[in-house]
Design a protein that fits this description.
By secondary structure, this protein is mainly α.
Length: 208
Amino acid sequence: MSETNTTNRIYSATEWIAKFAYINLLWIGFSLVGLVVLGLFPATISMFTVIRKWIMGEGDIPIFQTFWATYKSEFLRSNGLGLLIAIVSGLIVLDLVFMKNLGSGFTNAIQIPLYMFMFAVVMTMFYLFPIYVHYELKLIQIIKNSLFMMLINPLENLVMIAGIVAVFFVVKFIPGLGFFFGGSLSAAIIMASGYLAFNKVDKKKQLT
């Protein structure tokens, strides 16, 4: 009996490893199909959609069909979100360059608040994708709810950061894994943390 259980667990683990590798390859492939600029965000939303279903217990969904259907239906809308993220990311980079050029003349009294603000913006962006695929909301509502979730869920924020940092270091030391798992594992960590945060908020609403 124990040998059978061990075999089943090994088979299940192997199956999930293959699934995560497959969804990561789909993410890369469909990003390239859209020439990256137009394909990255539809592919990312499609990957989060599939992973969300896995987290919710739908492990046997048709991966390619679900990915492709989401890619087509969310192509324009997800690129709208992508444009916003690109603009905000560009402003953050400009701020970092600005602070670096000012050097020591830029006092900590100004640096620290700016770094804290940029950190909050980045954490808010992490929540954009889970909220996008979990709720049916307009773009402005997605942004507002992402900010709200980031502010009230410090534990989930830490889990996201720790998980992404762990993936970064694994990929740094074993670069080949990044091609097969870098995006899908990062998305799974962000989606799982977001899903926990959503459940906490939903439970609080039920109690009030």
